[in-house]
Backbone:
């Protein structure tokens, strides 16, 4: 896979639209290991072109989480490099220039279809059970007509003109040659009406400009790769080598999702997983030494790394296996390291100072501290016979309330108790419910008890990852209750 005549350069390109995803750490690890094996460069590039979903705090969280995991990059938005800037929003002007190049070459066209027309098209395709996609109405619009609309400042996007016949074939390091019929590939939007590129244009332009030699990413991008290959051909650029890693899976083999597994790196940090154990665990997601070895360092992985030891069967993200592996690492740590980790991860000053104001009025002796705060330090809670169901409500109803609130809290950016309280009050008003219908089930779900410090202050201190995890476990428990 290596290109001996070139310096190996790889990248990951996370989108700052939410909490740092465990899948990002997984992909980052394999990029890091591969490039270190070949004395190359590992780059982080922030893909923030989706301005509707962009979160200002997300970029900092992603970088912080990856540093905690123990993955260091050679170039990136925080440290710069020879191909800066490393944020797409700061490279915006160049994308328009490249999109215009494709238009002038006849490889792209301006599409003036309104959102309303496209929505009607999607609905009609759904009704006829046709595959979704643009019907290419503007593809052959005469240049003079397009110029008139352009002069009138009619909003438009720029779409790539995908060939209607033939095949696009590319070689994948793990899968061999992959073929796509061109007539089944959509005329992808390259530049949106707001002037921002879509992922597809930006990733090709950036990878070319940053001299990326190998694109190592998840297999969910395989279906997009023919568009990228075609863009390389349209520009006349040498394309990188592609390697699509198997997706992380839940135990039922579905794609890993927060509904069944915690997906935020911060959750595992809070849980007390060691970075070395997490890297080891992620390395086992599809890769092995060719023997039965399960514990190894990242440096050992770099030394023994080859792609032929990668398997494509969807690796199962097994929390029990991760806990076992973490336990093995903990057994090897000295007492002094244990103490340091406990102070840093569990009993750090910042966390304790958030808890103390909530229990000062409830505690008369320091020995009462643990009884009043145990849920702040516990992992998953048990809900056997827990009072999750208020009088007059059913398990199904409460399950619905909690599920609705999980979804609402998931998009809460300002994780403060007053904002969280507002979300709950709005939900009560929307559903015509009383506080007791929702507050008590939520209190029990996140703390395991009816008697706790103020609910919303507790939710704030516990943090989104723990609250979401516990609430989903409570929902799973309610599913087992017969009515």
Residues:
């Amino acid at each position: 896979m290596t290109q001996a005549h070139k310096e190996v350069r790889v990248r990951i390109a996370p989108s700052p639209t939410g909490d740092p995803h465990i899948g990002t750490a997984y992909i980052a690890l394999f990029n890091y290991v591969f490039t270190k094996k070949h004395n190359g460069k590992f780059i982080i590039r922030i893909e923030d072109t989706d301005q509707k979903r962009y979160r200002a705090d997300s970029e900092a969280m992603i970088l912080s989480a990856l540093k905690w995991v123990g993955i260091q990059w050679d170039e990136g938005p925080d440290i710069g490099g020879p191909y800066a800037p490393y944020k797409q929003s700061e490279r915006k002007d160049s994308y328009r220039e490249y999109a215009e190049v494709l238009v002038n070459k006849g490889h792209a066209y301006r599409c003036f279809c309104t959102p309303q027309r496209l929505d009607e098209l999607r609905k009609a395709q759904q009704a006829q059970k046709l595959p979704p996609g643009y019907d290419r109405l503007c593809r052959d619009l005469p240049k003079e007509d397009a110029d008139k609309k352009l002069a009138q400042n009619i909003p438009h996007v720029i779409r790539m003109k995908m060939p209607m016949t033939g095949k696009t074939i590319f070689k994948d390091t793990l899968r061999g040659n992959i073929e796509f019929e061109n007539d089944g590939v959509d005329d992808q939007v390259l530049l949106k009406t707001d002037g921002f590129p879509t992922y597809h244009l930006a990733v090709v332009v950036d990878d070319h400009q940053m001299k990326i030699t190998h694109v190592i990413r998840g297999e969910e991008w395989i279906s997009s790769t023919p568009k990228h290959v075609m863009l390389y051909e349209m520009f006349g650029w040498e394309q990188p080598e592609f390697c699509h890693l198997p997706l992380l899976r839940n135990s039922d083999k579905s794609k890993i999702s927060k509904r069944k597994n915690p997906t935020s790196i911060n959750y595992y940090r809070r849980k007390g997983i060691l970075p070395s154990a997490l890297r080891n665990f992620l390395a086992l997601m599809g890769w092995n030494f060719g023997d039965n070895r399960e514990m190894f360092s990242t440096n050992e992985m770099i030394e023994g790394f080859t792609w032929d030891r990668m398997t494509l069967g969807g690796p199962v993200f097994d929390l029990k296996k991760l806990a076992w592996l973490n336990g093995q690492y903990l057994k090897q740590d000295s007492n002094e390291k244990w103490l340091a980790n406990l102070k840093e991860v569990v009993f750090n000053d910042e966390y304790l100072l958030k808890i103390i104001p909530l229990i000062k009025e409830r505690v008369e002796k320091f020995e009462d501290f643990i009884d009043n705060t145990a849920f702040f330090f516990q992992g998953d809670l048990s809900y056997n016979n827990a009072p999750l169901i208020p009088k007059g409500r059913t398990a199904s109803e409460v399950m619905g309330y909690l599920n609705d609130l999980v979804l609402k809290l998931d998009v809460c950016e300002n994780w403060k108790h007053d904002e969280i309280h507002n979300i709950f009050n709005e939900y009560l008003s929307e559903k015509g419910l009383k506080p007791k219908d929702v507050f008590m089930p939520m209190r029990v779900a996140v703390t395991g008890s009816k008697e706790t410090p103020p609910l919303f202050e507790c939710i704030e201190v516990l943090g989104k990852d723990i609250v979401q995890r516990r609430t989903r476990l409570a929902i799973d428990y309610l599913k087992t209750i017969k009515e």
